[in-house]
């Protein structure tokens, strides 16, 4: 029976082919077809790197086509994302960034020429269709600019819109309410709380006027009350804010009870109410209540929205922040990582929403003892906020500065921490009146006192200890659960584009929680070993194992350059130790003959450990488990490695040494050959089921990574054995082997070339 479906769903047309078809369709003015091909190419590019210059180029092309179709606002969204990537990757003054900026300017000019926004004043005291469209368009422009984080431009457009409506007595109440509400939300985001209060109250008055003749719950009134409550929360009047948010909750529940069907809009409004009330009781330090509210919001959003939706990531972010405050940093870490990943994709790397996610992730890393990993995250957060808010003394920066001060204290920088905390205190006093947000000021002053005492008590001996902490804070993390039951194991992995080792770490996490294995460290080997180590660190963090050290190993006998990818976050900022330094320290603390070495990769690191630490190796190693293959030699009367196996072939001398020394020292070895993998296939259906049933980014990464790995392998097996493009693939791995291994039947005439086989 033919089984083409195994791979046919995974194979896409090559990106260059899709680009050419898109370009051809554009030249023929078949814009829908062009968009179709460009979007298919964009989807493939995002799987490799969601913020590459190739992605930006495709977004730019899509924007051009959308502009030609007259969809100006969609075009602006596409250009905005392209510009952010190009500025970040190539620089603000680059030719590509300038090209995108020029296109955005052209689209804005088209919008202005169509709507009159920015080119003429609205006609006061008159009402006609053209003016109505102008008001509606300007409101939409202002809302979009607000969502993009362009606060100054949004404020200008929205104020002009509100002024025009106030001057025109025949203006629509619904549009007036929307303009007032959006401008109030913008002022709240900018910390202009007094102005926002006045606007919310005016919006509430307009909403009540709209709902006078209806017995139904008016959502405009609900939104106005919720917005006013949020202003009270931001200004520090938490008890009144809590009372108003609970009132909103009651109104929404009443609205829900009157609906015969399950109204998604009301459900999502209820999720917003849960979120806002959660944030309010969080500031009141009612953490259990806050967690309940945020989890309730998350449950609704997971039922109604896609897993990668920005609102879902918001709930993950707040759940993580609350768990961190409750002392559950390891549980918070996967949620926070997900929020960072989604918010960067949804909002871009210069939006305050992304900055907030970075701040929470920094808090989480600091709470689990990874202060050096937290430091660059909070610094990036502050840079984004100061740029977005366009002033350095914005009230919304205060919480970030408090987190920054905590992290600086953790890494042994008390003077810098004091300076940061004093700046936070000054910003608070310049933004809030006496009695407003006293709890924030009190927290700030407590931290200042603590930092001042640390400086006063610092002696030369303490400075040395501080330096030692800076050197080791990223190496050993205090686990949430100090019970270290299970077989102690050190794992050597060449984690990368293939998903086998990623999946192995997933299994490792499960076995740790079952107290079957106790991972002492994970060592990433094979060039580029530093990138592999960061990838392993991200995977373990996403699995809630921040306490398991990850180390950079050797090059594994290879100098190949391989691009790593997993989670589009700040993994390049992570601080990691070297295995050659940490492993001896781990073994020194271990019981005699207690540690298992699990080798999922080449054996160069193990061989170097034998050479440099022979006494430790012989005393502390219980057994060695090797994935690679071996056979008994009659000539030498001992077990010897199978040098055709990939892991052994990376560094054959190291493999021979490990087997020889283990036999000399009477250290048991367990060798697992490729035959075991052949006899225990893990089909793509299993991976797909994992992705569908598990709400975790790693599940999607494993599925997509496996798909790309299979495609890459298919291309390699179709190359002749002498072609360098095969890499280290053994000659036995040809097309026939591929079809037999993956149980696929393919006719030669259907697959003449690797590039267009499927």
The biggest beta sheet reads:
6 strands, parallel
Name the structural class. Answer: mainly alpha
Strand order of the largest sheet: 3-2-1-4-5-8
> What is the count of helical runs?
33
What percent of residues adopt helix (DSSP H or I)? Answer: 55-70%
What is the C-alpha radius of gyration, as a whole number of Å? 30 Å
Pfam families: IU_nuc_hydro (PF01156), TPR_12 (PF13424)
GO molecular function, one term: hydrolase activity, hydrolyzing N-glycosyl compounds
Family: Belongs to the IUNH family.
Organism: Skeletonema marinoi
Walkthrough of the structure:
With 758 residues, the protein is mainly α. The protein folds into 4 domains: 15-114, Tetratricopeptide repeat domain (Serine Threonine Protein Phosphatase 5, Tetratricopeptide repeat); 141-348, Tetratricopeptide repeat domain (Serine Threonine Protein Phosphatase 5, Tetratricopeptide repeat, Alpha Horseshoe), CATH 1.25.40.10; 487-676, Ribonucleoside hydrolase-like (Inosine-uridine Nucleoside N-ribohydrolase, Chain A, Alpha-Beta Complex); 684-742, no CATH class. Helix content is 65%, strand content 6%. The protein is built from 33 helices and 8 strands. A 6-stranded parallel beta sheet has the order 3-2-1-4-5-8, with helices on both faces. Strands 6-7 form a two-stranded antiparallel sheet. The radius of gyration is 30 Å and the shape is globular. The chain starts with a helix and ends in a 17-residue tail after the last helix. 44% of the residues are buried. Mean pLDDT is 81; it is low at 1-11, 115-133, 469-483 and 748-758. This is Inosine/uridine-preferring nucleoside hydrolase domain-containing protein. InterPro entries: Inosine/uridine_hydrolase_dom, Ribo_hydro-like, TPR-like_helical_dom_sf, TPR_rpt. Residues 489-668 form the Inosine/uridine-preferring nucleoside hydrolase domain. Residues 455-485 are annotated as: Disordered. TPR repeats lie at residues 56-89.
């Amino acid at each position: 029976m033919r089984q083409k479906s195994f791979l046919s769903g995974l194979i896409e047309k090559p990106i260059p082919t899709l680009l050419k078809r898109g370009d051809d369709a554009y030249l023929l003015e078949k814009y829908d077809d062009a968009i179709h091909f460009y979007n298919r190419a964009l989807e493939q590019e995002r799987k490799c790197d969601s913020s590459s210059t190739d992605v930006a180029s495709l977004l730019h092309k899509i924007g051009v086509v959308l502009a030609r179709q007259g969809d100006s606002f969609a075009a602006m969204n596409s250009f905005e994302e392209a510009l952010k990537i190009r500025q970040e990757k190539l620089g603000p003054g680059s030719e590509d960034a300038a090209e995108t900026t020029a296109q955005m300017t052209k689209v804005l000019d088209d919008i202005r020429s169509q709507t009159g926004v920015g080119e003429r004043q609205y006609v006061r005291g008159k009402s006609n269709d053209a003016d109505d469209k102008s008001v509606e368009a300007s409101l939409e422009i202002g809302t979009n600019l607000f969502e993009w984080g362009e606060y100054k431009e949004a404020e200008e457009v929205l104020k002009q819109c509100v002024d025009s409506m106030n001057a025109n007595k025949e203006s629509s109440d619904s549009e007036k309410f929307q303009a007032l509400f959006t401008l109030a939300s913008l002022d709240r985001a900018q910390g202009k709380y007094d102005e926002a209060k006045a606007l919310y109250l005016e919006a509430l008055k307009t909403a009540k006027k709209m709902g006078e003749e209806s017995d139904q719950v008016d959502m405009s009134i609900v939104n106005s009350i919720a917005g006013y409550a949020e202003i009270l929360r931001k200004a520090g009047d938490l008890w009144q804010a809590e009372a108003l948010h609970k009132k909103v909750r009651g109104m929404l529940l009443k609205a829900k009870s009157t609906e015969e069907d399950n109204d998604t809009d009301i459900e999502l409004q209820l999720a917003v109410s849960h979120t806002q009330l959660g944030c309010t009781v969080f500031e009141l330090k009612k953490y259990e209540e806050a967690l309940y509210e945020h989890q309730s919001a998350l449950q609704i959003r997971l039922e109604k929205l896609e897993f990668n939706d920005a609102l879902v990531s918001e709930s993950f972010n707040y759940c993580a922040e609350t768990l961190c405050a409750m002392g559950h940093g390891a549980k918070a870490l996967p949620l926070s990582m997900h929020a960072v990943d989604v918010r960067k994709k949804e909002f871009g790397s210069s939006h305050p929403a992304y900055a907030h996610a970075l701040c929470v992730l920094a808090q989480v890393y600091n709470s689990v003892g990874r202060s050096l990993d937290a430091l660059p995250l909070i610094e990036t957060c502050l840079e984004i906020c100061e740029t977005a808010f366009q002033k350095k003394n914005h009230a919304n920066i205060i919480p970030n500065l408090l987190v920054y001060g905590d992290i600086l204290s953790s890494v042994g920088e008390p003077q810098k921490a004091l300076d940061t905390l004093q700046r936070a205190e000054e910003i608070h006093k310049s933004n809030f009146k006496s009695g407003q947000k006293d709890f924030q000021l009190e927290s700030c002053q407590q931290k200042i006192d603590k930092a001042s005492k640390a400086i006063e008590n610092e002696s030369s001996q303490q400075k040395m200890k501080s330096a030692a902490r800076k050197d080791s804070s990223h190496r050993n993390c205090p686990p949430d659960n100090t019970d270290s039951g299970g077989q102690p194991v050190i794992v050597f992995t060449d984690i990368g584009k293939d998903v086998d080792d990623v999946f192995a770490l997933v299994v490792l996490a499960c076995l740790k929680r079952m107290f079957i294995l106790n991972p002492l460290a994970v060592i990433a080997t094979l060039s580029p070993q530093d990138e592999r180590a960061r990838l392993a660190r991200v995977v373990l963090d996403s699995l809630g194992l921040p306490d398991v050290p990850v180390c950079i190993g050797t090059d594994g006998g290879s100098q190949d350059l391989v691009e790593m990818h997993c989670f589009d976050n700040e993994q390049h900022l992570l601080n990691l130790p070297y295995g050659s330094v940490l492993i001896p320290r781990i073994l020194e603390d271990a019981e005699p003959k207690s540690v298992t070495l699990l080798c999922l990769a080449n054996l160069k690191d193990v061989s170097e450990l034998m050479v440099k630490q022979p006494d430790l190796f012989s005393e502390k190693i219980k057994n060695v488990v090797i994935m690679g293959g071996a056979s008994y030699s009659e000539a030498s009367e001992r077990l010897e490695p199978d040098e055709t196996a990939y892991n052994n072939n990376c560094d054959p001398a190291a493999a021979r040494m490990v087997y020889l020394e283990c036999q000399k020292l009477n250290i048991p070895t367990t060798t697992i050959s490729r035959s075991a993998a052949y006899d225990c296939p893990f089909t793509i259906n299993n991976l797909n089921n994992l992705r569908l049933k598990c709400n975790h980014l790693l599940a999607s990464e494993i599925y997509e990574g496996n798909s790309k790995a299979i495609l890459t392998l298919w291309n390699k097996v179709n190359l002749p054995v002498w072609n360098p493009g095969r890499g280290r693939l053994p000659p036995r791995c040809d097309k026939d082997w591929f079809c037999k291994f993956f149980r696929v039947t393919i006719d030669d005439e259907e697959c003449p070339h690797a590039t267009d086989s499927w």
